[in-house]
Amino acid sequence: MTTRERERILLIVLDTPKRDRAAERREATQREILEAAWALAQDRGLLEFTLRDVADRVGMRAPSLYTHFPSKHAIYDAMFGQAWTDYEQLILAELDALPPDPDPRAIVRRASRVFFDFSVADPARSQLMIQRTIPGFEPSAESYAPAVRTLEHSRRLMSELGVTDPDDFEIWISLLGGLVNQQLANDPGGTRWSALLDRAVDFWADGVGLPPSPTDQKAASRRPNRTTRSTG
């Protein structure tokens, strides 16, 4: 091996970042703790588990868990950030898949469906994301950031579709939240309010002046005209 070759190998070794195995183990443990917390929230309810329950679920002594999350609110904070990050990634994928010549009404229906289905799929997650049911809990700025970004993605989308009045956007958000809450409160696991989603969104779309969807117009044109024959 030549001197130049040895120097090249040495440079590669020196330039290769060392793995921080302790940090990797810590991150893996925190992920395991959050998975346990979500499972307990889904099984018992968001407010009905303790830190000791979480520690037992992951096979850890409670004092050891405190080194990762010093309080229950700290776990809620991490769960809140994780939930909104997951939803942000979902809607970004949806935005990337939009056709080049979009149908505004169809896009609003799709955006509404994505939020509705994501919310009702996990009642505990929905409760944490869009309801203020935990006394004294306020998400940290870091955990709240993906929620803020998600709203900005939605506002930008609506603006591109021609919906620029902030009040129209707020009504849409409130409409979706109300339907989600009705579904979870009165027909969990069912389809009662899910089946009404497109109709409710169309009411809103009519109010803000979105044009009818071309697919709706084609379907309407295929329906037979019903005329009333006079008898006399």
DSSP helix count? 11
Name given to the CATH architecture of the largest domain? Orthogonal Bundle
Instruction: Catalogue the unreliable spans.
Output: 227-232
Fold-level CATH name of the largest domain: Tetracycline Repressor, domain 2
The rough form would be described as globular
Task: Tell me the number of structural domains.
Answer: 2
State the helical fraction. 55-70%
SS elements, strand count:
0
Explain what the structure shows.
The chain is globular. The protein has two domains: 19-70, Orthogonal Bundle (Arc Repressor Mutant, subunit A); 73-213, Tetracycline Repressor, domain 2. Residues 227-232 have low confidence and may be disordered. It has helices at residues 3-15, 21-44, 51-58, 62-66, 72-96, 104-120, 123-130, 141-160, 166-186, 197-208, 214-222. The chain is mainly α and 232 residues long.
Q: What's this model, at a glance?
A:
The protein has 232 residues and is mainly alpha-helical. It has eleven helices and no strands. It folds into two domains: 19-70, Arc Repressor Mutant, subunit A; 73-213, Tetracycline Repressor, domain 2, CATH 1.10.357.
Core attributes:
single chain; 232 residues; mainly alpha; Arc Repressor Mutant, subunit A; Tetracycline Repressor, domain 2; 11 helices; 0% strand
SSE layout and pairings?
Elements: H1 3-15, H2 21-44, H3 51-58, H4 62-66, H5 72-96, H6 104-120, H7 123-130, H8 141-160, H9 166-186, H10 197-208, H11 214-222
